[in-house]
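tool=predict chain=A
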Amino acid sequence: MMNYKKYRPYPVMDLPDRKWPETVITKAPIWCSVDLRDGNQSLEIPMSLEEKIEFFNFLVKIGFKEIEIGFPAASDTEFEFARYLIENDMIPDDVTVQVLTQSRPHIIRRTFEALRGIKRAIVHLYNSTSTLQRDVVFNASKEKTTELALSGAIFLQEEAAKQPDTEFIFEYSPESFTGTETDYAVEICNAVIDVWKPTPDKKVIINLPSTVEMATANVYADQIEYCCRNLKNRDSIIVSLHAHNDRGLAIAETEFGIMAGADRVEGTLFGNGERTGNTDIVNVALNLFTQGIDPKLDFSNIDEAVEIYERLTRMTVDPRHPYAGSLVYTAFSGSHQDAIRKGMERMKEHPDRWEVPYLHIDPMDVGRTYDPIVRINSQSGKGGVAFVLEQNYGLYLPKAFQQDFSLVITRLSDVSHSDLDPDTIFREFKKEYVDLTAPIELVSYKEAATGDGDEVAVESRINDNGTEKTIAGKGNGILDAFCHSMVRYMGKQFEIVNYSEHSMEYGTKSRAISYVQIRTEDGRDYFGAGISSNITKSSLRAAVSAANKCMAE
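tool=predict ok
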């Protein structure tokens, strides 16, 4: 048995007047990508210099204005990457790079060496503040922990002063914020703020990381709201979030944190990061997009993002990723497919407003197509099959016809144990229903008036198993008269219970398709279809196809 008794519930905050649950997000936060630092350090094979450059350029392309490029003092590779970007003038004027440093003098000094000559940079200072880290790892009191933060904050200022031509923005993180007493987190952050003395024109960033996710997302939101209320000089502070995904709640934590007053979000593409990963910025940004908010990041070609991410990180994007997964815009279930089909049809009435059941976003908005929305397997129904034929081949089957064909496709999928592509479905449709010529094939027909009102007579030449014969009949139209002739010839009574037709293409050479449903006197239904540039001929061919299916049983 799993020993759940060795765990303790995370304490909730006493914040009875919390405001964040009633808040509505109305704009995108400031985004900061940490793919090249937090993401890169979690890879089995870290990116090479060339790969990091390509990734950096892609982050710039999709719209990131703040990008953490590494921990320059950690290794020569990290240092060289920062220098390469600076010396080759690869950082656009509207992009600010960020670097990470521990609160240690030699590490801070090396960090500023890496930034020499840069126009603007964020220097991100951190030290661990959680109760567990203080007790187990550092054996440090609150006082010593605060002293470490302050000494780093002061040294940052001193090093920055040596490079007066660079605009430095300071950032501080009480690492493992979620495991820190919230009042102490505010206390240490305020102590750093007192050192840096920010103003509304020269703000500092206070980053409150869920370094290890420890509680439900609402607790994190309470912590953020408490800090936003109690941090000094709030109008001079950019409150930043950095959520990890240990409990699978990083996206919820980030959204709740924005509602609680945060201004900025650090995260990675597709949630790459240590252990279970970081906040997935793709997900959060597109969540905003679906609420009618400009995310300020361009994911209109989501497949490009997937390709670059998978190639450079050697990680994979889950096929069920909410926006980028290979299967997220696909329905196999018959009821889902039917609802999507009807929703897509209704969209013609209001193309400016996306409302399609089971599809929370228009696939076209992220560069996907409608082709894979409905995939057909043994779980699919008539609606899905009809959708495939409508979208790919312009065929609009009557409802009863859809039901009959769906049974054909279900049997085929059961045998193949796989889903069926549109071409296979179309081929099966033609094979099963269209212009069937065995045992009977229509060779020719001619119409003659009977002199009896609207009644017409039709004389037809048919080929029955290689033998040509002439049949004739009368009715209230050509199709009715032809069917009467077929009834007499076959010696089997049936009547047409459903007929429809439509054009398959536009233009002077357009073809028509006709659908016929016949019912025998014992109540059995048979379906046939005919295609021709002549609408009368297509209807007669459809009737022959249905009759041939009837005779085959």
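Residues 9 and 459 are 87 Å apart (CA to CA). The chain is about 40% helix and 20% strand.
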